[in-house]
Amino acid sequence: MLTDFTKYRNTDPSPESKDYKTVYYYSKGALIAKQIGAGPIEYLTDTKDLTHTIVETAIDKDSWREARRAHNQKSNELREQFKFDLLEDLGVLHHPKADLLYSLAKEFADGGFESIYETAWYLVELMEI
Predict the structure, then answer these.
(1) Backbone φ, ψ for residue 56 (5° rounding)
(2) Scanning 1, 31, 97, 116, which has the fewest C-beta atoms within 10 Å of its C-beta?
């Protein structure tokens, strides 16, 4: 019987565009400072005054997309593991209508893994095993 539903949740923070942002500070056409993500401002000259500068922001979209893809892949793998464990726990892993049972449980559940689990327990009685 499944009891620990937290192991199916992706606890890694979701990648945000601000984490892949670089801010460039220009004065008189020259780059004087830059800041990568939420890190400290890196001054490239002796000038520390950024009040009269031109600010340009760029996002490394490729890295951000790759981080989101990896995060989503991990979430999908955890959901697939939950589905496998649930169907195995119910004893219907290789039943021809196992996928239908899981889909209906997801549809009728109030949310979350625990709710899907409880709903599947009620629905499995409708299957001829």
Answers:
(1) -125, 130
(2) 1
User: ∠ CA(74), CA(75), CA(76), 5° rounding?
Assistant: 90
Q: Is 7 left (phi over 0), alpha (psi -120 to 50) or beta?
A: alpha
* Alpha carbon 57 to chain centroid, angstroms: 24
Rounded-to-integer distance, Cα 115 and Cα 109, Å: 5
Give domain limits for the chain: 6-126
End-to-end CA distance of the chain, in Å? 18
Query: Which residue, chain included where needed, has tokens 């793998």?
Result: 77
